[in-house]
Amino acid sequence: MPGTESVDRSSCTCSCKDGWHGVLCLPLEVPDTVVPPVAERAADGDTSCVVNQTLKSLTLNMWKTHHCYLGVTFSGVGAVLTFFFNSMPLHLPINITLTGCTFRGGAALQFVGGVEAVESSGVLIRVSQTVMRSSVVVFALALPQHCDIVVTEVDAVQSSAVHLPETVTKMLSVVMLHEVVLSASSLLVSNVKAHATRYGGYGLYSIGTLTLVGGSSLYTRYCNFDGYTHLFYLNILSVSDHSVFALLNNTMASGASLLYQYSRSSVSDHSVLRVV
C-alpha cells in the first residue's frame, strides 16, 4: 500500500506514513467499531378517533396504523383527506375508518397507491354513513395487495365538479378511479344515493385503465343515481386471474346507461363481468 512505512512480516503488521491510518494504512481514519444502521422507524399505534370536529385543513401522520374519523365535517378545498399508501407502514395491518362524516365545498377523500401493487399485511378501509356535497372519493394508481374496501350508505348532492391537483379531469362524480390496479383486493360501493343538479356527470368514473388481478373484485350494488349521464363510465377495463367486475341492482332516475365502455375491455382467466 502507498501509505505503508514498513512491514513486520513476523507479526503481519504495518507501520504507516504520516497522514495514513489503520491496519491497512488508508488515507482516512477508520473507526474501530462498526456503526449500526439507523433503526427502522417505529409505527405509531395510536388508535384514538377524531370525533365531531370541523376541519378546514389537514396534516396526516402517514406512519399511523389506525386512522379513525367519527362525525367529522371536512369543509373546503383545503380539507382534502389524502392517504398515500407508499408512505404507510404496510408491513403492519392498516385500518382506516370514516363513519358519519361530511365532505362539502370541494373537500375530498383520496387513496393513492403507487406504480405497482406492493405487498401488505392487509389494508381495511370502511367509509360509511357519509354525506357528500360537491365532493368526491378518489382511488388512484396501484393499491397495495390485500385491500378490503367498502364505501357504503352515501348521500351525495353535486352541483359543481371538484378540482384536485393530482387529477387533470374535472367531472361530477361520486367515486373516481384513476388508473387503479386491484391485486388480491376487493372494492365494494353500495347503497349510494346521489343527485347531480347539473346534467352530464358520471356516478363512478374510471380514468385510464381499471385493472383487476389476482382474484380481485369490484362490486357496485344497490345504488341510485339521478341526473348523471352514466352510472359507471369506463375507459379501459382489464379483468383477469379469477377476478370479478359487477354492477348489481342499481337504478338511474334519468340518464343514458348503467355502464358505458369508452374504449375496450378484456376479461380472461376464469374472470367475470356482470351487469344486472
From TrEMBL:
Domain spans labelled Dispersed gene family protein 1 beta-sheet: 95-249
Pfam families per the UniProt record, alphabetical: DGF-1_beta-sheet
InterPro entries according to UniProt: DGF-1_b-sheet_dom
Sorted UniProt keywords: Membrane, Transmembrane, Transmembrane helix
TM region positions: 68-85
UniProt-recorded name of the protein: Dispersed gene family protein 1 (DGF-1), putative
